[in-house]
């Protein structure tokens, strides 16, 4: 994530999970008990409110312009539209409904380009993280299906073959994507290759990782000690 001094990598910690939780609920208040449960699970700190306040203060210290505020129920991160790649992807996929094929392909290309790896670096720590990761993965699969179908209707099988092979569609259980790959190969007279040829080793892994160009200079602790109010 970008701070005033450049890219900052938040290693696995309550602070990172808190930022992820607030970001994926951008514009909505996340209740305090939900934050505590997501950050510490079945082992909450002795003073949970103070522990959350400590993490909020640390986020504000690292990201001085972070638009996070508290209310009587919890905390809210008010980010502009498009600030969170996953949410932007979902918005683009939803906006593609009803578009003509050319515009549909263009919109979904933008959406798919926002996916750059496993959500949360493949580490879904709590129920809300896991649910969000699963939802985003399904939205992306739907975007791939819509994109591939539109490309085939436009008579463009080669981009479909290239992308779906890179996704190693034949290795997974999404039968509809595999069927689209076979249809694309059939359009260029190579249907049997979907069965006889192994997938490309160049895998585009599904992603929302925090950039790791610069280590976080502030360090981090568990944050389970009282730290006073952050309001």
TrEMBL record:
Gene3D superfamilies: Tetratricopeptide repeat domain, Winged helix-like DNA-binding domain superfamily/Winged helix DNA-binding domain. It holds the Pfam family Trans_reg_C. GO terms for biological process: phosphorelay signal transduction system; regulation of DNA-templated transcription. Residues 212-223 have a biased composition (Basic and acidic residues). Residues 1-89 bind DNA. Keywords: DNA-binding, Transcription, Transcription regulation. GO terms for molecular function: DNA binding. The keyword ATP-binding does not apply. Residues 195-231 are annotated as: Disordered. The keyword Transmembrane helix does not apply. Signal peptide: none annotated. InterPro entries: AfsR-DnrI-RedD_regulator, BTAD, OmpR/PhoB-type_DNA-bd, Sig_transdc_resp-reg_C-effctor, TPR-like_helical_dom_sf, WH-like_DNA-bd_sf. Residues 1-89 form the OmpR/PhoB-type domain. Belongs to the AfsR/DnrI/RedD regulatory family. This is Transcriptional regulator. It comes from Labedaea rhizosphaerae.
